[in-house]
Amino acid sequence: MIGVIFGPPGSGKGTQATRIEKELHLKHLSTGDILRAEVAKGTPIGEKAGRLMAAGDLVPDALIVDIVRARLPQAETGAGVLLDGFPRTLAQARALDAMLSEEGHRVDVVIALVVPEATLVDRILHRAAVEGRADDTRQAIAERMHEYHTLTAAVLEYYKGKGVRVEEIDGMGDIDAVFARVKQALR
Ligand code: B4P
Q1: Got the DSSP string for 123-183?
Q2: Considering the entire predicted model, what is its pTM?
Q3: Among 86, 120, 143, 144, which is disulfide-ready with 10 (CB 3.0 to 4.6 Å)?
Q4: Atom of ligand 1 at shortest range from CA of 12
Q5: Torsion sign over Cα 33, 39, 44, 49
Q6: CA of 65 to the centre of ligand 1 (A)
Q7: Directed axis angle between helix 31-41 and helix 61-75, to 10°?
Q8: Is pLDDT at 76 greater than 90 in this prediction?
């Protein structure tokens, strides 16, 4: 099973994906986590990505696609994979389809978390106070929202147009309440 967890910044993709991995045993593959690990290690990828991420910009498609291509086969050996934060552009979605179709696979389901923008900003600012993530500043948040609307939102329409099962989930309420809805949709 290949799933995608989708939504705007701060919608709880990473939060829910962690729960899904633990309880439903889908391997969680988060491009955001991978990039932050590269930044922390100070690799050439991290140096390039870190500047863009801190400004709230997406990193280049080619770099992200290489990262996913290198990790997907290993992730696919278990019960299934849950992609978190990828694909974030139409080019990434097409590249993912090409990668999967080489092995006779496809995206089976997209879980799309729906949360109003004011709540997204509140959540991210709350995280900023707790974790101090470089891209959780007001300016970077505004840029991340802009990138989401101009580049990422279209990915959902792309999957709907291809007839992939898209489950739009109310992402409001506490983490357990959202997870209960996600589980129901994945059943
Ligand atoms: P991500 O790591 O994907 O970050 P995100 O969209 O902000 O996070 P997410 O939606 O997972 O929110 P979370 O669960 O943490 O990307 C970061 C950056 O990496 C991007 O801006 C980009 O630069 C780069 N990048 C990553 N993938 C890329 C790609 N494919 N192409 C190009 N660039 C890419 O939740 C947020 C907060 O809300 C947390 O503090 C959480 O505790 C809280 N929260 C969650 N659910 C809640 C709930 N129900 N109630 C209250 N709070 C909740």
Answers
A1: HHHHHHHHH--TT-SHHHHHHHHHHIIIIIHHHHHHHHHTT-EEEEEE--S-HHHHHHHHH
A2: 0.95
A3: 120
A4: 14
A5: positive
A6: 19
A7: 110
A8: no
